[in-house]
């Protein structure tokens, strides 16, 4: 399918492109790009000093660059800024960054030619994935530069299962390396496309995870014999929250008709907080998610290039500003990371309640032969270790600060670092919830004779048991965890 960019993209569109949909631009979008490019041409002809067009960048912003080497300046910017290190971003993440970058150019305030944009859309169409190291960006420059390398025939890319040089990849797509003009190098490394694209992917993964968290929690609540009255709509409405109401409705629906819940009624005065507070913690995360999504959408609607090109060819305006800094984006990713870390930590506590014979009422550690078998004892260790890792990852990146470019850039908001942390934290959370899913299903194996499951939880039980049999210490548990995580990541919760 094709996503048409006319007046902009939202995070859901970027996420769809990250998953393989292609991107095309309307003629209106290309007209905006053409006008900004024409304005840059006239600035060059007039000789008016303008940052990044006929001056150096960063701390070299007062150094005028002769007209004859302005194209070389663009080329050099891409080469010098491509200094990322570490493991490569995955294809989904690189595609999202490209989509966000095209959206930024399509606002018509960057000054690049339409050829730059059409080359970027061709990368998406052919699923050509530039090699983009994941580390080394204080803001946005290095990731973008590694994508730009391929456009000029440098760097490396993955295409049709092969690793090619940038020039080879372009040739395979029937394209020639671009010769960059004035400002184009700066525009290609500039803006918040990197953090915005990564955040869009994180949002798609986060909402998917939150749906699973609600479903898996319901499975555990049923196995633990929860007191369903705590999730009554009227009771939850005493704390007004869209998120709480959404989660409460999901749990009631998932547990409707449960014989196990009926049998457990009145068994306890109240449940432990890891059970009773599911709507509150999961609901808070959904409320935070909504705020973060609105911030990412606002970022996609914003011009984040510096300088911004405005006016007309006859009366050009070059505005040096700080729209590429994006403190709000870093704070949003940090906030969502904290929310997801809390969801995962609560999941680990529920795992413990399922396997702990002191509170579960089930065989110790859900072992099929307690004593000679360890069951899920060490799987809970794994979840606890991942929770600890998440605690470190939830530390805000947006407060890190830093100084770069000879004091010219003496404030850093770190939105890309915040987005990368969020993505890493989501990896851990998926594993933790996968372990809870496995433990919940194993717990239900011991409850078959007590009463019937609800239809909603039975769907979760069947979805896992189609792939994994009851665990009897008869195989390494690690592979089971990987299978459960893959199922969780690639499919929606079964209804």
UniProtKB/TrEMBL annotation:
InterPro entries: Aromatic_Lyase, Fumarase/histidase_N, L-Aspartase-like. Keywords: Lyase. GO terms for molecular function: ammonia-lyase activity. Pfam families: Lyase_aromatic (PF00221). This is Histidine ammonia-lyase. The lineage of its organism: Bacteria, Pseudomonadati, Pseudomonadota, Alphaproteobacteria, Hyphomicrobiales.
